[in-house]
Amino acid sequence: MRRCFILGNKRGDYFHADRVRREAGPIRFIAIHDRAHAAFLSTEFRAQMDAVVELERLDVESVGRVIAAEAASDGDVLVCADEELLFVAAHLRERFAIPGVRPRSLIPYKTKRLMKQVLQANGLRAPRFVDVDTLHSRASLERYFDFLADTLGAPFVVKPIDGGASENTVKAASWRDLERWFRECSAAAGESTAEEFIDGDMFCCDGIVRGGKTVIHEVWRYLAPCLNFMSGQGIGGIPLRRDDALRARLVAFNERVLAALACPDGAFHNEFIVKKDGELVFIEAAARPPGNLNPLILEKNFGVNLYEALLRLELGVEIPAAGAASPSYAYALLPTRPGTVKALREPALASFESVSWGVKVGDRFEGFPRSIAEGIAAKVILRNPEYARLESDLFALLDYEPY
After folding, report:
1. 226, 279, 309, 384: least buried by Cβ within 10 Å?
2. pLDDT (tens digit, 9 = 90+) per residue, 373-387?
3. Where a domain ends, among 49, 83, 100?
């Protein structure tokens, strides 16, 4: 019997393993996760697995012992959608001769610095950047800020070369912002870059590549750049309509990005900013499906889930085409705010469908969140067949205070 190893700690429900099993034929599903994230895997997901293995850590040697303990068979696959585990999965495929992405295919995605270098070498617009000097610059951060501002313009963004969820990231408009990054973020951030701040609207392209060709390609408009979450603005998004001229421009630009990065078969999640003058600027890319509510909202809108599509891709099962209906769902994530939660305020919007609360009355917060990975006060899902109203209701949540 074929084995399907699902390596990861998050969003197991999105794989819809029970549905895929019906088309894939006899298969043994084995989920492998680490102990620290055990609560992230739902009872429903666990019930769909034939075995669930919990490890202290997910490294090549530890996971390799699990794979070696199972009787090998032709057609084994290893599925991974967690960014921090993609290289582990690739090394394991290589070690056990399992088909799929190898480490060399992920090299362009290894760091944010490297992916921007690759894009710039291929003539695609990406933010200008320099490495942050944490060794010699601390003695005079005022002068160092002036140097970076002269080089990149001010404000500029300081962020780790390897990370996500806008953790340890600061927009520096003054030397005091830079000082705050050194004080609060530099130790955890490790190797980092300062990059040009690009002002404009943020978008992302999500999809699946199969046989070197894009078989699913959806485009989102973000409610706000992710960095704004840490200053109190909501984030989230709405898929663009199929007939939107900007969607066609972003799809074409992203196809050039995928080609430059030599995107392997699998999922992609690439982010861009459209400047006020219409220029398209690459921000960053990932060889995985999007996180949070993006997969759920895409499924509600177009009938496809990128996690399930990735599982189907690895198993060689048909991937259904995305529907062509106009989007009728959007979502927002609202950040926690300084103060005490005295009452929960459900948004009064025509498009409101549901809210999932991450806070309760009596909770107290000293400041805004330090990353998207923490401090979500509410997850709001909107639904409206009238696209213009859906979009306007989404943007009404930009500065909404949920308590």
Report:
1. 279
2. 889 999 999 999 999
3. 100
- pLDDT tens by residue, 384-401: 999 999 999 999 999 999
For residue 72, is pLDDT > 80? Answer: no
401 Cβ contact list (under 8 Å, min separation 6): 337, 345
CATH of the domain at 77: 3.40.50.20
- Look-up: residue for tokens 């895409």? 298
Distances (CA, A) of 207 to 21, 77, 283, 318, 324: 22, 20, 17, 15, 15
Cα 243 to Cα 248: distance, rounded to the nearest angstrom: 8
Number of domains composing the chain: 3
Q: Which residues contact 257 (CB under 8 A, 6 or more apart)?
A: 119, 124, 270, 282, 285
Strand-pairing partners, residue 216, are: 208
- Kindly report whether the peptide bond that precedes residue 402 is cis, defined as omega within 30 degrees of 0: no
Dihedral sign from CA coordinates of 339, 343, 346, 347: negative
User: How many angstroms from the chain centroid is the CA of residue 134?
Assistant: 28
Residue 163 has pLDDT above 80, yes or no: no
Range of the domain at 29: 2-100
Looking at residue 114, its pLDDT comes to 93
Specify the pTM: 0.92
End-to-end Cα separation, the chain, in angstroms: 53
Instruction: State both tokens at 369.
Output: 């969140």
Is 351 exposed, middle or buried, given 0-12, 13-18 or 19+ CB atoms closer than 10 A? buried
Q: Which two tokens stand for residue 361?
A: 């009355």
Q: Which of 163, 180, 196 is the last residue of a domain?
A: 196
What are 204-240's pLDDT values in tens digits?
A: 999 999 999 999 999 999 999 988 998 999 999 999 9
